Amino acid sequence: MKTILALASILMVFMLVSCQKNVITFGNTDVNLSKSAEVRLVYDPPLLTSTALNITRLKYNDQLVSEVSTALGSIFPNSIAKYHVVNQGAVKVDAYIGTTKDVLQYSNTFTLGAGKYTAFIHSLTDVPYLLKDADVFPSSDAWADTLANIQFVNLLYKADGVTPYGKLTLKGRRGAGTTANPYVYIPIATCGFKEASTLVPYKLRKGTVTVWSGTETGLAFVATDDAGTLLKNFSSAGAVLDWAATGFSLGKGRNYIFHLNGKIGTKYADQIIRLSTITLN
After folding, report:
1. Phi/psi at 135 (5° precision)
2. Residue 18 has pLDDT above 70, yes or no
3. In angstroms, rounded to a whole number, what is the distance separating the alpha carbons of residues 184 and 260?
4. 258 CB contacts (<8 Å, ≥6 apart)?
5. For 36-132, CATH number?
6. Which of 8, 67, 252, 263 is the most exposed place for a label (fewest CB within 10 A)?
């Protein structure tokens, strides 16, 4: 028994020494907030005809910040734009496509100050549209209100993919849409091209319950032009239909960017209208 206890004591000493000598550390870099900014890149060109045009490598100021082995999504990387830390001032962005990640798809330079920004690539030749992210979110009464907040960004082009579509109003759509119960439209915000609204409250509901803690699913949104006419698009059969974006889920107390992008076409094959979201909190 003494021999066993002695061996156990020796093993414990070796384990203690081993733990002391092999400290696990993680590489990190201190960020000087007075000289740095944060930016996330959102890839919103008017018309993506193939996944081969999606971004696979991203550089800021000639420094690699992210890459993927295959082309994924229309927002880089994957489906959620990530923040990257850069120096304040002039920022050069280079975005590449292809599985070899060496075909330059987009290159431009923009200027950042302090804070967080979302940079929307809405044209392959123009500078990104820069949106400074909100520093403070709107507050509401958690017991009396059932609200999400939406910030609308208009980046939609006309049929040529060069001329902006113009002023648009984002609206929520509720109801069954039948003759007896037509849709009800709730105005959210009106923006011209390359404009963004503030965060606007949008009331959520769950059946007949008006106040609850949770998420409403199955939400639909539409857009109208300056004359109040619903935005149109073509079906694959060639019919002209009222455009709507459906299947959204919004959470109580959450804040979102809704960016409308793409271009109106003269037929189904040369159009795309996308309403995409970024969750801010």
Report:
1. -80, -35
2. no
3. 21
4. 150, 151, 152, 153, 170, 221, 275, 276, 277
5. 2.60.40
6. 8
pLDDT over 80 at 10, yes or no: no
Helix, strand, coil shares of the chain, percent, nearest 5, are: 10, 45, 45
The domain 147-279 having CATH identifier 1.10.3430: the answer here is no
Residue carrying structure tokens 């295959």: 70
Rg, the chain, Cα only: 25
Residue type, 189: A
> End-to-end CA distance of the chain, in Å?
60
Distance, in Å, from the CA atom of 56 to the CA atom of 98, rounded to the nearest integer, reads 6
- pTM greater than 0.90 (yes/no): no
Task: Write the single-letter amino acid at 101.
Answer: K
What pairing do the DSSP bridges indicate for beta strands 63-67 and 55-60? antiparallel
Hey, where are the domains in the chain? 36-132, 147-279
Q: Enter the DSSP assignment of 209.
A: B
| Contacts of 1 by beta carbon, 8 Å cutoff, 6+ apart | none
Residue 49 gets which letter from DSSP?
-
- The DSSP code for 26 is -
The predicted model gives 245-271 an average pLDDT of 93
Cα distance between residue 164 and residue 157, in whole Å: 4
Q: Measured between alpha carbons, how far is residue 112 from residues 71, 177, 198 in Å?
A: 28, 45, 20
DSSP 110: E
Pick the closest to residue 191 from 258, 91, 274 (CA basis): 258
Residue 150's SS3 state is: strand
